[in-house]
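Severity: low
Component: inverse-folding endpoint
Summary: output formatting inconsistent between runs
Steps to reproduce: submit the following structure tokens with default settings.
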């Protein structure tokens, strides 16, 4: 794949741009290569950038009929992203609906890590109450609280 990118894009002097990236991904998807794109943190961008990225993603998926190009988008619940996904009928999983299960999993992981730390470092004189307090604080921070 790197040879293809070098021969078809770098040697032709293509400037790095969204236009050339889309062309490259379409070239790859039109061959025997599956294109898997992972986008994270789109909710941290300005609305204009979000619209632009979602438009490019839509263009890629439509050009390949969703057969060769798959996109996995991670984002907080932002109206512009949610509305765009709904209008295009993209499947979505809303983890905010799974909050109790996620909180429980985080709590179990934090508890296990603190227990291991406590066992490994017996010289730490931390009471059970302090351990519980640390667990609660870390679990709360895991959701940005």
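Observed output (run 2 of 3):
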């Amino acid at each position: 794949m790197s040879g293809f990118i070098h021969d078809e894009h770098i040697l032709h002097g293509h400037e790095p741009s969204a236009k050339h990236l889309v062309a490259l991904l379409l070239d790859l998807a039109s061959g025997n290569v599956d294109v898997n794109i992972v986008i994270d943190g789109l909710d941290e961008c300005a609305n204009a950038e979000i619209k632009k990225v979602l438009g490019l993603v839509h263009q890629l998926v439509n050009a390949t009929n969703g057969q060769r190009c798959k996109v996995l988008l991670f984002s907080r619940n932002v109206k512009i992203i949610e509305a765009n996904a709904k209008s295009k009928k993209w499947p979505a999983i809303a983890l905010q609906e799974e909050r109790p299960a996620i909180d429980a999993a985080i709590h179990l992981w934090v508890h296990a890590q603190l227990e291991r730390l406590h066992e490994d470092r017996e010289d730490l004189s931390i009471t059970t109450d302090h351990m519980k307090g640390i667990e609660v604080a870390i679990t709360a921070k895991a959701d940005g609280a």
